[in-house]
Amino acid sequence: MREGESDCTTLMKPIAIFDIDGTIFRSSLTIELFNHLVAKGVFEPGFMKKVRASEAKWLNRQGHYENYVVDVAEAYKKAIVGKKKIDILAASRRVVAEQKLRTYRYTKHLLESIRGPYFTIGISGSPLEIVSEYNKFLKFDKVYGWEFGLDEKGRYTDVVLHVPPQYKRELIVRYVQNHGLCFKKSIGVGDTESDIGFLELVERPIAFNPNSVLARIARKNNWAVVTERKDLVLECNLKKVKILKV
């Protein structure tokens, strides 16, 4: 029996857990929303300074993409204070309308193929406002995103209420326990070490376009590794490599 799970019954749906940023969406929702908010003057241009330096290091292969994303998230957290929620919601709608189709084929196809028989959960380190807007397209049964506090005037405070990437494992275990779900036949898809917690819970863990840390863990645990490049999708483990058609 898996952690946090009672005996499965025929009435229980198996669970499928997907990271969103870099796993389904071919970028980071935080990055795209942040850039849009700066371009539209909602965020002050000064917040771009460190972000641009971090981006340049990544593009020039002098730094890591994960560090770039962290710097954007930190800048967003500071820039959001005092801003109106209605402005962030409007920006989220515009970004999603423009970029919703920028998905990976493999993970989007997998999500569509299991929708219904599985209870699907999407977890993102991006703000819940844009995650919820994007989910109108992805149609997960449940999504999680970064949540910030609001004052009585609908403006954001410096209080962070919820940061799902910091405890993905605990979040999933609690949700399964409280909602009559099951880890039997469960699926998990992630791309970085922040996803290891829930990948360890499922029967079918998939490391998708993994970074080096997750790739090492996947190799150690004999997890499937799937990579997508241009129009080519490869699935591999310790024994075989095959081309997948999606």
Q: How would you explain this protein's 3D organization?
A:
With 246 residues, this protein is α/β, with parallel strands linked by helices. It has 9 helices and 9 strands. The protein has one domain: Rossmann fold. The chain has helices spanning 29-39, 48-59, 65-79, 85-99, 105-114, 128-138, 168-178, 196-199, 212-221; strands spanning 14-19, 119-127, 142-150, 156-162, 182-190, 204-208, 224-229, 232-236, 241-243. The chain has a 9-stranded mixed sheet, with helices on both faces. Helix 4 (85-99) runs parallel beside helix 6. The longest helix has 15 residues, at 65-79. It starts with 13 loop residues before the first strand and ends with a strand.
**What percent of residues adopt helix (DSSP H or I)?**
40-55%
The side-by-side strand order for the widest beta sheet comes to: 4-3-2-1-5-6-7-8-9
Domain unit count = 1
How many angstroms separate the termini?
33 Å
In oligomeric terms, what are we looking at? Answer: single chain
What percentage of amino acids are in beta strands?
A: 15-25%
Helix count from the secondary structure assignment: 9
Total beta strand runs: 9
Q: Give the overall silhouette.
A: globular
| CATH architecture level-2 label | 3-Layer(aba) Sandwich
Fold-level CATH name: Rossmann fold
CATH superfamily: HAD superfamily/HAD-like
Give a short account of the largest sheet: 9 strands, mixed
| Classification by helices and strands | alpha/beta
Average pLDDT confidence is 92
Residue stretches low in confidence (pLDDT < 50, at least 5 long) are: none
